[in-house]
From TrEMBL:
Keyword Membrane carried by entry: no
UniProt catalytic activity: Endohydrolysis of (1->4)-beta-D-xylosidic linkages in xylans
UniProt family annotation: Belongs to the glycosyl hydrolase 10 (cellulase F) family.
Gene that this polypeptide is encoded by: xynA_3
Species name: Plantactinospora endophytica
Keywords noted in UniProt: Carbohydrate metabolism, Glycosidase, Hydrolase, Polysaccharide degradation, Signal, Xylan degradation
Annotated InterPro entries: GH (IPR017853), GH10 (IPR044846), GH10_dom (IPR001000)
Enzyme kind, highest EC tier: hydrolase
Name of the featured protein: Beta-xylanase
EC number(s) stated in the UniProt entry for this protein: 3.2.1.8
Any Pfam family hit: Glyco_hydro_10
Superkingdom, natural source: Bacteria
Residue ranges annotated for the GH10 domain, each copy included: 73-375
Signal peptide stretch: 1-27
Length: 388
């Protein structure tokens, strides 16, 4: 294999060298497809003439100097059918999250019959491409299989049986992926929104009691003691009553020696709402408890059509969250919830909104992508021992 050794851009750690190889989806972590090397060599010549640093490298390479995992949610149907999607997912990211195929409704659509295929394929894809897997999600009040919700609703599944079903689900799934999933979103979206957040009145809260979260964490830890166990939610990127509810819960669980290792901040932003500019201070609270933090589902939506102001707002929003992560010693992962507008969940859920991801529907870089590259390239980072 012809290897081209190139000096990294001037702003990155001195002497950092990256090996690039031919464009294959099986490129090892420190290699990028030739296309990027061409971009790099083009960029290099531009850098040589202008003196400006060339930051046009894949995100995973730029993130590597920080020990930061850079991830994406993966749409398994697209991964199977779309070569450009598959290659870019391999090239750009060092972490992957199943957008849907590790959720209860997809894994166990019929009671006791597990559909491991799509999730196992994601694990294989990650292993081929030197990527770590973030498991999403063990307990969530959405995307539950009908046999479960119907059984609880009609009373055929009582509290005792639901407890056993939940224990069995967590144990079965975490054991199945033992050693293959770095971290799990054990409970997703546990708190209500607003000024006085409380635990959502889910079937888990109703039938297992308020300490169902602690119990779920213990069951997951017993199934894979090495997996990092996270809680995860949206609208907690800045300091607000909901993020403070998680902070207080984290302190309580840590006092009780419950195996909680991290807090996920989904980072679904919308330009019509204020920028979470105090995200660094918010993450610092959790970091000081000894927890890992991660932005787990970042996208930045706005009402279409776009314009230069919305584009600038999107760049600033992505960069605010990435900067907050880089300012936090144990912020280990920055994951976008889809990397191309071609497959984003946003248009189907928010009428009139879209363009929420870093690449357009033709996989062309948007300003948001360039912004992420630049922040990763220029950040001098004392916290670069994240070890991702
Ligand atoms: O799998 C079924 C398929 O069998 C059926 O034919 C089809 C027709 O309705 O639906 C398919 O399920 C869809 C599923 O995605 C898989 O594609 C559901 O309808 C659809 O609602 C579901 O949407 C997902 C959404 O969670 C559900 O709330 C989105 O793709 C996914 O991006 C989104 O992700 C969530 C995170 O898990 C948690 N944080 C918020 C985030 C956005 O809602």
């Amino acid at each position: 294999m012809k290897k081209i050794r190139i000096a990294m851009v001037g702003v990155l750690a001195a002497g950092a060298l990256y090996t690039v190889g031919p464009s294959t989806a099986t490129a090892a972590p420190t290699q990028v497809p030739l296309g990027a090397a061409q971009a790099q060599s083009k960029g290099n010549s531009a850098a040589r003439t202008s003196g400006a640093p060339n930051t046009d490298l894949p995100l995973r390479l730029l993130a590597k100097q920080h020990g930061l995992g850079i991830g994406t949610a993966v749409d398994m149907a697209a991964l199977a059918a779309d070569t450009a999607y598959r290659e870019r997912a391999a090239q750009e990211f060092s972490a992957v999250t199943a957008e849907n195929v590790m959720k209860w409704s997809e894994l166990e659509p019929t009671r006791g019959q597990y559909n491991w295929g799509p999730a196992d394929e994601l694990v294989r894809f990650a292993q081929r491409n030197g990527q770590k897997v973030h498991g999403h999600t063990l307990l969530w009040h959405s995307q539950l299989p009908a046999w479960l919700t119907d059984g609880v609703a009609d009373g055929s599944i009582d509290s005792a049986e639901l407890r056993e079903i939940v224990r069995n689900h967590i144990t079965t799934v975490v054991k199945h992926f033992r050693g293959k999933v770095r971290a799990w979103d054990v409970v997703n979206e546990a708190f209500t929104d607003g000024d006085a957040p409380v635990l959502r009145d889910t079937i888990f809260r109703q039938h297992l009691g308020p300490d169902y979260i602690a119990q779920a964490l213990r069951w997951a830890h017993a199934a894979d003691p090495k997996a990092k166990l996270f809680l995860n939610d949206y609208a907690i990127d800045n300091i607000n009553p909901k993020s403070t509810a998680y902070y207080e819960l984290a302190k309580q669980l840590r006092r009780q020696r419950v195996p909680l290792h991290g807090q996920g901040f989904q980072g679904h932003l919308d330009l019509q709402y204020p920028l979470p500019i105090d995200a660094p201070q918010n993450l610092a609270r959790f970091d000081k408890l000894g927890l890992e933090t991660a932005f787990t589902e970042v996208d930045v939506r706005f009402f279409l059509p776009g314009d230069t102001y919305k584009e600038a707002g999107q760049v600033g929003s992505f960069n605010t969250l990435l900067s907050a992560c880089l300012l936090t010693p144990r912020c280990v992962m920055f994951t976008v919830w889809g990397f191309t507008d071609k497959y984003s969940w946003v248009p189907g859920f928010f009428d009139g909104q879209g363009s929420a991801t870093p690449l357009d529907e033709n996989f062309q870089p948007k300003a948001a992508y360039r912004g992420l590259q630049q922040v990763l390239a220029v950040a001098s980072d004392p916290n670069n021992r994240r070890g991702f």
